[in-house]
Structure formats: structure tokens, C-alpha cells
Amino acid sequence: MRATAEQAAREVLDVAPLVVREIRGEMRRHRSCEVNVPQFRTLAYLDRYPGASLSEVADHIGLTLPSMSRLVDGLVDRKLVTRQSQAQDRRRITLALTSRGRASLESANEMTEAYLAEKLAALPEAECAHIVRAMQALRDIMHGESRVQAHAAES
Amino acid sequence: MRATAEQAAREVLDVAPLVVREIRGEMRRHRSCEVNVPQFRTLAYLDRYPGASLSEVADHIGLTLPSMSRLVDGLVDRKLVTRQSQAQDRRRITLALTSRGRASLESANEMTEAYLAEKLAALPEAECAHIVRAMQALRDIMHGESRVQAHAAES
DNA sequence: TATTGTTATACTCTATAACTATA
DNA sequence: TATAGTTATAGAGTATAACAATA
Prior knowledge:
The structure is a homodimer.
Chain A: H1 2-29, H2 37-48, H3 54-61, H4 65-77, E1 81-85, E2 93-97, H5 99-120, H6 125-141, H7 146-154
Antiparallel strand pairs in A: 1-2
Helix pairs in contact in A: 2-5, 3-4, 3-7
Chain A binds a DNA duplex through residues 28, 36, 38, 53-55, 63-71, 73, 85, 89-93.
């Protein structure tokens, strides 16, 4: 059983970067798409957790605080995200999508999902189901410790 | 059946960037690891296809020719790769790993695989088998057209 | 002329260090 | 004194455009 985990590790290490390259390339090709991968993930996170603080988002995306601050600068400049300080603790900021941000997220989402779905359509349905399951398992095991920090930051 | 491909696309889009972040973070944490993800993938490609040309590698990794030229500069400077022009067509170059390059690849491979395998070990064996299968399916469907170019460049 | 690769240049992304404001 | 976030600064990575060498 050890062998299977290692084999899976080898496969993940080989394939995951390849897939992300493809996604990134697809996002760049479309002139209409105004966000890159980390920005896209940030918008998606804010869609799911509106009102998140900078630290929470930085932790989830895997960027340092200064880097995330810059990234958010860009999103705010383009009116995709709002940033306002919290009343009860004015050090903290509350981030949320604007309607433009939501539209941009949806557009990028549809575009990229359509691109991937077209490729995935070449596979038999059962294989797609395997992929869904595999992705869910991978999501569960990633974020071993960082979840703890994210949770702590929420309280 | 369409729905499944789209669901798989959604999951892949969500999880693949997350996994690559983790891999990248792990490679950085280890001071001993002297390569980043694209460099690592380049070494792995040259291990599998020794004597590949710059164009072939650039195509496979998903970088432009100038960017790959730069990347290879760095690998050659650090004596991980050799670069020599081909006799029969002196425009083309032949890339190959040095013994240091092979060692570096193996070291990075072991380190990162061990990291992923440790996380994957939390899953039941059957789940790991699903992941292996899912990754193989994903690898097959990526590189829709670029494979053709890579193949053409080989001849 | 077409192709392979390099050089010149600039921009984006990200990090570390130092700082500000608030608690 | 500790924490949330920003600004300053620098380095890495990548792209496009222009170029050189070879076919």
C-alpha cells in the first residue's frame, strides 16, 4: 500500500504542473480574461467567503501578506474587489467581490472550464468520475497545517 | 455525460493550482533543492529524452523559445545540463543531463515525492489507485495539439 | 527565405525588510 | 508589545521584438 501512495505521488508531481501550465496558457490566450491564476483563485475564494480578511486569503492562496496586498491592489484598482477596514478592529480589512468582480470570475470560470471540459469530453464518463473523485481526495489532503492558521485567523 | 466532464473540469481547475502551490512551496522550503518547478520539469524531460533540442523542450514545458533559452542558460551555468550544436544542422542544439544534473533531478524528485507520498498515505489505498488512474487520464488528454508540433520537431 | 536559437528590453510576480496604524 | 496590513526594494521568471547564424 505504501507503493501506491508513492506511485500516486510520482504521477501527481508529473501531471499537476502540466495541467496548470495549460490552464495558465489558456487564460493568457484569451485577451478578454483580465486575471491570472492567483487572481482568479482569489476571486473564487472571495466568492465563497465574502468578507474575508487579507490574512485569510493570503493563507488560502499561499502567498505572503505583502504579495497578497499587491495582488489585491490590482484587483481593487480594476474595481473587481472592495477593500474596507472593519469597524470593530480597524487593523483588519474586509474584502469582497464587486459585481464586476463576480462577472469577471464567472467569465474566467466559464472560459477555462469549457476549455478543460472539451478536453475531458474525450474520456469515457467513468474516467471523468474518477477524476472528480481523485481531485476531491487531493483537495482533502492538501493544506495539512495551513488550514489551522487560516482557522485561527478567522476567530 | 456532459455534466460529468464539466464537473471534472471544475474540480481540476480548483485543485490543480492548489497542488502545484504546495509542490512549489515544498521545493522552496528545502534549501538543498536548487531547481524550481519548470527547471525540474526540464531536467525530467531531458532524463527521458536525452539529446532533445531547445524547441522540443520549450514545447513540452510550455515556455517560449527565449524563456527556455534563459532557463537552459541557468542549468548550463550550474553544470546540470550540457548544450552543444548538432553536426548535421548547426542551428539546432542538443541538450543532455550531466551527472550532476541527474543527481539534482533525483534529489528533487525523491524529496518532493516523499512529501506528496506522506500526504497521500493518509488516504486508503483504493483512493491512491484512483489518483494514479486520474493522473494518467489527464496526462493523455493534455497536450492536444502541442504533441504534434513536438513530434514534427523530432523528425 | 525559412528556421533555430540568442540577445535586448521590459513587465509581472513574489519575497524579505522596514514601516504604520491599531489593539 | 503584538498584530494586520502597507510600502520599499530587489530578484526571479517570462514575454515580445530584434537579431544572428544556418539551412
